[in-house]
Amino acid sequence: MPNTAAKLEFLRKTVCDHPEYGEILPLFQALYQVIDGQEERTGIHFNQPADHVQEKVRNGFPLLTTEHLEIDPFQAVAFLTVVIEAMLQVSREGLDELSRLRQAIASGDLDLQPLFAGCLSRERSAVEEAAAQLEVPSPLMEFVLEIPLKTALGIYAEAISPEQVSGWTEGYCPICGSRAGMGEICGEDGKRFLSCSSCFFKWPYKRLKCPYCGNDDPDTLSYFMVGEGPTRVDVCRKCSRYLKTRDARIGNSEVPLEAEDLATIHLDLLAGKEGFERGK
User: Fold this and answer.
1) Strand partners, 224
2) What distance in Å separates the CA atoms of residue 207 and residue 192, rounded to the nearest whole number?
3) What distances in angstroms separate CA 191 from CA 151, 163, 216, one per listed residue?
4) For 167-220, how does the pLDDT look when each residue is reduced to its tens digit (9 = 90+)?
5) How many CA atoms lie within 13 A of 206 on its CB side?
6) pLDDT-derived band at 116, boundaries 50, 70, 90
7) Which of 63, 116, 196, 204 is surrounded by the fewest CB atoms within 10 Å?
């Protein structure tokens, strides 16, 4: 079941406990509020054939490709319109750009199919071209489009059991091919899982191995922590990238990792100051 309400509640608690996040999290709170209960109404669906799943897993190919993407344009426009209106209510910058984007979506001037396909495949040329025509920053357009896309991907991933992709050893997601967004350590044996940055599917991964460059040299893999929270920063000194990892044995095991990610932005800032880049 969608866990949007749990994300929203955790962000509310974070703002209460850490007032410094009061400038960062209201946008995401507003977005979760409009998404909660509407997760099935993004207008985005995936038609995944049941055959060749194990063959894809063995060969390192994610289950979903753009050919499985189905768009209901009327429903997608309605969902995106509500999302942008929520952003307009809380945003302090980019209001003109958001208004232009809302108008272009509502009028049908944007063909959503190739834009969503570009986000799914991480081939951003279609998004960049459309953004340039509207004089809207490409990252802003991509951010808006990924809200319904990630919501739909999350619903799809919930229906996939770990057994269906058992044997997957890659550092990118077996469902949609996106990078790992966070890691998690669970259980008495301290097993490590990666969590997708797009569909939030979790899959097991070697404890001492960088999911971005494959480095498994323990002398160049380390981590740092701040305070006593359950989330730390794993760093690879070979590729200079990092992954935030929650130790669920310490706490917050019931909190969705994407909410934990938002509530630990201070760790991203510290990692950046140390010269590390978030994994891509």
Assistant:
1) 233
2) 5
3) 27, 16, 16
4) 999 999 999 999 999 999 998 899 999 999 999 999 999 999 999 999 999 999
5) 14
6) very high
7) 204
pLDDT on residue 49: 65
List where CATH 3.90.1670.10 sits in the chain: 165-278
* Continuous H helices in the chain: 4-17, 26-35, 53-58, 73-90, 95-107, 112-121, 125-134, 138-158, 257-262, 265-273
Q: What confidence score (pLDDT) does residue 50 get?
A: 62
Burial of 125 (0-12, 13-18, 19+ CB in 10 A): exposed
In contact, 243 and 183? CB cutoff 8 Å: yes
* Cα 41 from chain centroid (whole Å): 19
Which residues lie closer than 8 Å to 96 by C-beta, 6 or more apart? none
- The DSSP code sequence of 192-210 is EEEEESSS--EEE--SSS-
Q: Which amino acid is at 88?
A: L
Residue 240 has pLDDT above 80, yes or no: yes
Superfamily of domain 165-278: FdhE-like domain (3.90.1670.10)
Q: For residue 45, what are the β-bridge partners?
A: 70
CA distance 198 to 173: 9
Closest CA to 130 of 162, 167, 97, 165: 97
